[in-house]
């Protein structure tokens, strides 16, 4: 079950370069080319399935615009932080 994300978690997202709003966090990832962008999306997809927590994303060529929010609660939860951290790790 997901828990509402506390201020510490919100600060961690901000420090990692995410734009944190009341109910969502957004970040744009830029890669060297489309194949690297899509490969990253494929890796993230596997992680999202394991977490049962999925991003909202928009890919154009080498950029991927990501929005994280928890649909079940209509806000940010610890699952969003966990997925964000895994996305950042996979992009590094
Ligand atoms: C039925 C399914 O388990 C739920 O819809 C899961 C799937 N992935 C999800 N992803 C996100 N971002 N938020 C959710 O609330 C969510 N719920």
TrEMBL record:
What residue ranges carry the coiled-coil annotation? none
Q: Which Gene3D superfamilies match?
A: Transcriptional coactivator/pterin dehydratase
GO process annotations (BP): tetrahydrobiopterin biosynthetic process
The UniProt record lists the EC number as: 4.2.1.96
Molecular functions per Gene Ontology: 4-alpha-hydroxytetrahydrobiopterin dehydratase activity
Question: Which CDD domains would you find in this protein's record?
Answer: PCD_DCoH_subfamily_b
Which keywords label this protein?
Answer: Lyase
Reaction(s) catalysed (UniProt annotation):
(4aS,6R)-4a-hydroxy-L-erythro-5,6,7,8-tetrahydrobiopterin = (6R)-L-erythro-6,7-dihydrobiopterin + H2O
Q: Which NCBIfam families match?
A: PRK00823.1-3
Q: Give the family, as the similarity comment puts it.
A: Belongs to the pterin-4-alpha-carbinolamine dehydratase family.
- Recorded protein name is Putative pterin-4-alpha-carbinolamine dehydratase
User: What is the protein's species of origin?
Assistant: Thalassorhabdomicrobium marinisediminis
């Amino acid at each position: 079950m997901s828990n509402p994300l506390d201020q510490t978690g919100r600060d961690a997202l901000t420090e990692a370069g995410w734009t944190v709003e009341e109910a969502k966090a957004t970040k744009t990832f830029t890669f060297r080319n489309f194949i690297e962008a899509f490969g990253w999306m494929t890796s993230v997809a596997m992680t999202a399935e394991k977490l049962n927590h999925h991003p909202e994303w928009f890919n154009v060529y080498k950029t991927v615009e990501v929005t994280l929010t928890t649909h079940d609660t209509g806000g940010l939860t610890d699952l969003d932080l966990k997925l964000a951290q895994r996305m950042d790790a996979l992009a590094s």
